[in-house]
Amino acid sequence: MNTYESLLAAVVATGGETREVFDPATGELIGRAPMADVPALEAAIDTAEAAQPAWAALPDAERSALLHKAADAIEASSEALAELLSREQGKPLNGPNARFEVGACVAWTRTPADTPLPVEVIVDDESGYAEMHYRPLGVVGAISPWNWPMMISIWQIAPALRMGNTVVIKPAENTTLSVLALVAVMNQVLPAGVLNIVPGKGSTVGDALTRSPKIKKIMFTGSTPVGKKIIEASAPNVTRLTLELGGNDAGIVLPDADPAKIAEDLFWGAFINTGQTCAALKRLYVHDSIYDAVVDELAKVAANVPMGVGLEEQNVLGPLQNKSQFDIVDRLVESAKASGARVVVGGNPDRDAVGYFYPATLIADIDPHQELVMEEQFGPALPIIRYSELDEAVRLANELEVGLGSSVWSSDRAKALEVAARLQAGTTWINSHGALHPMIPFGGAKQSGYGREFGVEGLKAVAEPHVISG
């Protein structure tokens, strides 16, 4: 078991190029993160490439057992990992935040280890016989984001390792220490060279990772513009890609919904991780007949959710992770206010305070094409749009070129399913938003990316299909 102090000591930089890491809630200096260069990345890729054949040669059951040992190690150090995550990313320990994220790392490591992927018999009749096998690709390059840095890293690492690949991961520059600590804990039990981490700039280390001909698969979670750059950089090598890109998820509340019953789930669908979630509810369309009631019920929930420093146990909302994201949210809310939209709660940050705290903000009576609706805010501000005709709401929900998630809220499940079938998104939830399960495939539609993670489909995505016929 590691303590916070021992984990921090194991991952902070002691020399070379570094970057200062500050707590986004308090401004306190946590330590200095290492910043590697391209030669260090190339060395890590060579290490992973050398280790891959022996790792792939292990029986599947043995790789799975080692993944369970890695999950055990994460679990044993869970409190130390959660504290470091809270200090660096800003999310509180409690609620669906730091402790929740570390727990998800354990679950998303164990599930791929236990998910069977047997040989598939495709044809077995008088016409012939064919089997589908799934082979390792080789070295997988993973690029993880700053909003859920540990959990999304595990989404990339665990299935890749399970299928016999080795991994080189580049964490986000804003949350380097958290992922370094996670990898350090896992490497206490994994064979040397199987899991490698190279912190560095996206423009140098990240770019070189995507261009390397030795990388056989790239897994990336982040913005659509960066995803497009990865597509271009990796194209000469025809590198396989899984891209989970930006979203601006729509939710539609039907007139038969119960405002009081759905309010808390609506709130957390939008404000989980202080709104810094790709598949969070980011624009809410509510039928005119219950619009005011839904707004009022959401406001009641928002008024009673404590926001503050993550290490203070009572808080369940924290700061935005960085000044750049604070400025984006602030700009979009100010634009909405200037347009005449109504601020129900929030919208009044203390811009001179220590920490990037932006209050939970509800914006009502907003034009459906206002900036706050059309752009992904990635923060604690929810625009609520009034509609009168369902066809109008569906059209507005579908008109953007992104489609990660969506949701329908109704007391009539059959009606909700009918509306869900009309929405263009990788996932549509009924009476919830953003709930993920390690066995249910997840990914985007349109410019929210392609490829699927989780479950059997996630394992297939980090493997080479091989048909043996005859």
UniProtKB/TrEMBL annotation:
<dbReference type="InterPro" id="IPR044086">
    <property type="entry name" value="LUC3-like"/>
</dbReference>
<dbReference type="InterPro" id="IPR016163">
    <property type="entry name" value="Ald_DH_C"/>
</dbReference>
<dbReference type="InterPro" id="IPR016162">
    <property type="entry name" value="Ald_DH_N"/>
</dbReference>
<comment type="similarity">
    <text>Belongs to the aldehyde dehydrogenase family.</text>
</comment>
<dbReference type="InterPro" id="IPR015590">
    <property type="entry name" value="Aldehyde_DH_dom"/>
</dbReference>
<feature type="domain" description="Aldehyde dehydrogenase">
    <location>
        <begin position="16"/>
        <end position="465"/>
    </location>
</feature>
<protein>
    <submittedName>
        <fullName>Aldehyde dehydrogenase family protein</fullName>
    </submittedName>
</protein>
<keyword id="KW-0560">Oxidoreductase</keyword>
<dbReference type="InterPro" id="IPR016161">
    <property type="entry name" value="Ald_DH/histidinol_DH"/>
</dbReference>
<dbReference type="InterPro" id="IPR029510">
    <property type="entry name" value="Ald_DH_CS_GLU"/>
</dbReference>
<dbReference type="InterPro" id="IPR016160">
    <property type="entry name" value="Ald_DH_CS_CYS"/>
</dbReference>
<feature type="active site">
    <location>
        <position position="244"/>
    </location>
</feature>
<dbReference type="Pfam" id="PF00171">
    <property type="entry name" value="Aldedh"/>
</dbReference>
